[in-house]
Amino acid sequence: MNACRTRPWWPLVLLLAAAVARAADQYSFDASQYEKKPYELGGYVQFQQDAFALNRSGAQYKLGYYGEPQRASLDQTTGIMELTGKLRQGIGTFDFRTFSSAQSNELSSDQSNRFYEAAYSLRPNPGMTLEAGKRALSWGKGYAWNPIGFVQRPKDPNDPQLAREGYVMADGDFIWNPGGALQTVAFTPVLMPVGDQVNNDFGASGHLNPAFKLYALYRDTDLDFAWQGKGSRPGRFGFDFARNLETNFEIHGEWARILQFPRVVTDASGRTSTEVANATSYLLGLRYLTQGSTTYIAEYYHNGTGYSESEADQFYQLVDAAFAPNQAPGGKPLLQKALALGQGPYGRPFAGENYLYFRAQIQDALGIVYFQPAVFALVNRDDGSFQVTPELDYTGYKNVELRLRLYMLHGGSFTDFGEKQNSRKLELYARYYF
């Protein structure tokens, strides 16, 4: 496949060589390492090489590469650095996480530097924390999706454990331990202002966006109730739960109700309308660890704000008509509508209604310590299209992680994964932690 041809892997070779040299160092024990220091600094650097096989017949390819040279493959090199740090003084702590990246492919290059998090917190006693700054909250029990993640950026189901950029906010934690069946109660209030220069990608400016989460540990079951008031986004509320049925078998779920959500829909001719109605999203999942150290994760996700199979079909027909070679004169407005919708609601990742997620990962496979092969799949349950991704992960070198993935997308015309930009993606990265 052209997209998977070998590119210069020199960043990976150099990093691997450095890792092997460090692995030869002797481990030592220092009790002072386990004392809480007044400051901490860490992070990682990552070199990544990607090879894409592009899906030139897909709607998302046509929209994403409009005006660009047409091609069947693309190779890309990316360098990433994340820094994390903490500074403690008395009851106060300042912590931060930065994200810097440099990306280059045959069409363009780009650089980015920003703070993912930067917040100052006060902890006058173990049961109270007050903080202000940029914070990435993590609400919800789902692994790949979080319907009740009202004040956080969505996860990428392809890599749910990646750090995400936070929002500027003021928040707190108040914790009680009543005892008995109700073991723990915690209350987390949030104020998240939106203005022209603050959190402007969250929604309409001029709102404080109050929200809260109420947590309870009741008879070994984790429960959360979450609420976000109407403001930059429509008001919403929901709950989640998680419980271990056995030590190696956990179930979890989330449910969210969004009030008066405006949803833009189109037909094949480009006529758009906005439907305003309540929407319900929910998730149900499980996690199971076998005696052989294989972990299985499975989730079903219903996206109440997503598009049905027939609604998505209308959008794909619109794109086909907009890019038809024999398009009638005056067809430019149709193209502009398709581009606007593709960059808006129809271009969201996982914009459909119903999805399945499955992941299986083996620890120390084939008797190789720190070798963890895995495979995960994402399925659009409505149209039957899907993505399967085998993965090899190795962490046997000190402070180094090596990962290889192959994304394989399958689906016919007018299906979710059949209309993506790529049909295949080969990804290799080396990450060094410090």
Structural key phrases:
single chain; 434 residues; mainly beta; Porin; 4 helices; 18 strands; 11% helix; 49% strand; globular; disordered N terminus
Note down, in words, how this protein is organized:
The protein has a single domain, classed as Porin (Beta Barrel), CATH 2.40.160.10. By secondary structure, the protein is mainly beta. The longest helix is centred in the first third of the chain and has 14 residues, at 10-23. Helix content is 11%, strand content 49%. The two termini are 36 Å apart. Helix 3 (309-322) crosses helix 4. It has an 18-stranded antiparallel beta barrel.
What order do the helices and strands come in, and which of them pair?
Layout: H1 10-23, E1 39-54, H2 59-64, E2 73-89, E3 92-105, E4 109-125, E5 128-135, E6 167-176, E7 182-191, E8 210-218, E9 221-228, E10 236-246, E11 249-266, E12 272-289, E13 294-302, H3 309-322, H4 332-343, E14 354-362, E15 374-380, E16 386-394, E17 400-410, E18 422-433
Antiparallel strand pairs: 1-2, 1-18, 2-3, 3-4, 4-5, 5-6, 6-7, 7-8, 8-9, 9-10, 10-11, 11-12, 12-13, 13-14, 14-15, 15-16, 16-17, 17-18
Helix pairs in contact: 3-4
CATH topology: Porin
- Main beta sheet strand tally, sense and closure: 18 strands, antiparallel, barrel
Query: What is the CATH level 1 assignment?
Result: Mainly Beta
Order of helices and strands: HEHEEEEEEEEEEEEHHEEEEE
